[in-house]
Amino acid sequence: MSGQRKGNLQKALNVLGPFIGLIFVIAIFSLIPEVQGRFLRAGNFKSVATQSVIVALGALGMTLIIISGGIDLSAASNIALSSVITAYAVNAGVPPLAALALGILTGGMVGLVNGTLVTRLRLVPFIVTLGMMGIARGMAKWIAGNQKIDAPMTWVNELMAKSPRPSWLLMAPGVSIVIIFAVAMAVVLRYTVFGRHVFAIGSNESTARLCGIRTNRAKILIYTIAGLFCGLSGVMEFSRLTVGDPTVAVGLELDIIAAVVIGGGSLSGGEGSILGTMIGVLIMSFLRNGCTMMGWPNYIQEIIIGVIIVVAVTLDRLRHRKES
Amino acid sequence: MPDPSAPPVLRMVQVGKTYGATRALDDVTFELRRGDVHALLGENGAGKSTMMKILSGAVMPDSGRMFIEETPYTPTGPLDGLRSGISMIYQELNLAPHLTVEENIMLGREVHTLGWLKRRSMKARVREALEFVHHPEISPDVPVKRLSVGAKQVVEIARALMNRSRILVMDEPTSSLSQEDSLRLFEIIRRLKTQDVSVIYISHFLEEVQKVADVYTVLRDGRNVGSGTMDGTSLEDIIRLMVGQAFTEMFPRIPHQRSGVAVSMKGLKGVRMTSPVSLDLAKGEILGIAGLIGSGRTELLRTVFGLDAVEGGCLVVSGIETARGTPWARIGQGFGLLSEDRQGEGLALALSLADNITLSRFTPYKRYGLLRVGRQMKAAGEWIAKLKIKARSPAQKVLSLSGGNQQKVALARLLHQEAEILLLDEPTRGIDVISKAQIYEWIGELARQGKAVLCVSSYLPELLGVCDRIAVFHRGGLVEVREASRWDAESLMAAATVGRASAAQEST
User: What's the pLDDT at B508?
Assistant: First the structure.
């Protein structure tokens, strides 16, 4: 009887865990008198959403990779490279739309190379993407001549504007883009053959291969999609900074991975969800935002987020141990 | 009933396979008729799994031909086997644990339009398949990792059906099933036969084989030593085929004396054991443990050594009762364990011989917390000489040694540790005859020195030749302990496969 109830509780925690965490974080800052007034305002929520865009886009692809049992350490370097390429193109007089496409494709290319190396050379994703992390960062610096690339203002810079021009948009266009792609990816994971194969590969790759799934093809596709998202994220980075900065987003890949893991993704594969990841992104953004409002220094934020990651994964492990 | 004049579904003709110096499969010819349940029997290492790996396409034969429905069959990988209608249902289940029942059954065969899943129609097909195998209660939406072992197996069978497999290979399907689940599995097999599906059924549980199979083939040392129909064949006939003729191997016996009790298990039960065990082990005694893989032998050793948590009962070591123990504490009490998994657990393959030999007792080589490498090497060198380990130097990596020499390194660690109670799990698995004889000699020598030896083995001649007493395990429980002289290969095999010491006599 109590076992049954416990089982239901666990199931609920499984779905709601990250969500409860998010509510908890928001509730705490809402109760602190010093920041209450500023924290709980629509304007603040809008800026938190805008600040989340870059990590969120990277995390969409990372979710796919982590569910399939892989990892991408090159995500942040890829974002920097893509933003530099976008800036370079805009600066060179390429029409903004084409520059944007170029940035996204750059990310996709990096992902394609990652996927190809992982499958063809049968290297562990950790090693391949660790190498790519350096390669992409180096290329970004090379192309930018080791300095920031200035670019004329275009509509691309509007993508991350907190208060967009037609006011009916409510949020920065980047936020809407994230929402649209998040829904799309959630649908892909749940309702397409490809999505199902992503889970199967992460859960038991040899079974997937035995069942006739072309695992190599699927993996290349996974890394390429993730790369395209990094490319889009890079465009957003350029839009926010209005320059192409090759030294931007250093270490951001760890924030992206953390968001996926806080959202219930398992580094051993087979588990994870887009909704969970998005909540994970928001938890980290709200924490940063709240800490900044409190006037707490950066290092406090770092400690808190570190603790959150360990706590989230510990809870996850406890749940698994009970299940087995 | 299958039509005897119909061509066989599968024909393997003079299939052979050699691994290094071992002839794993020696010109085996095998025929499987449509709708038959064909039992494939033999001791561990008789060649059954090699034969099935060849059939599935996972391993290429060196010689021979195979035909499915009289058309040549030359698989180059497991996928070829699957496409030719052969499904393997292994002991270690081949499912994606995070995926649901429906997702697993339809994996690689999803119904879709342009990549969009048609979930409803897939679910309907899955329900149909589960109903066919008499398990409509399994929900298609449950993740497979939440299912019991029996239910997981049903999912695998349903997947095989979805694949329209004509040949199902079941490898020890009931080894981890309850009695009830086993009976339901037999019911499923009977239904499969009505659909003209043929089953190759591998099992060590002979009584169960007698119930479910129509025909049998016995392999021994890689050769087909006999086939026939189950009707009119007795258990002893089969056991005799499995065990073969008298043993010619020599077991050097070193005289030794049993003295006081070294360790006594009182209703000891570990988390992975199904029933409590009470057993005494004397100093200067070699106690053998026989039983099939998965019968609880290894679990007993691991519980004694503190690798598995104790759930009930206790150990009495030199008069002191201890319920729980970590490997660290057990080593302190004089225990030493030789793991059955040499490569995975027993040895640190990438480390040197010297490190491996001294790993469980570094004390003599420590000063001010630093390791005195010279002394360590010297001590290791002595053991290498004593055990006749073929190695260039104590600094050589264990990885580069042959299996037999690796096993000697593992044994050397226990000797160097000066363990008083040695728990040996398959001490001679996969090693050459000369190394085997040398290890037997050492086991005898240890008993002469008054040490207690508990030796788990699947190799019956070894148990009979080396041990003073032999205990037999069956499905997680202790069946009987007797003096070794009061066992023979047939009665051991019968006790291990049937679970009753006198079953072979009764069934006549």
Answer: 31
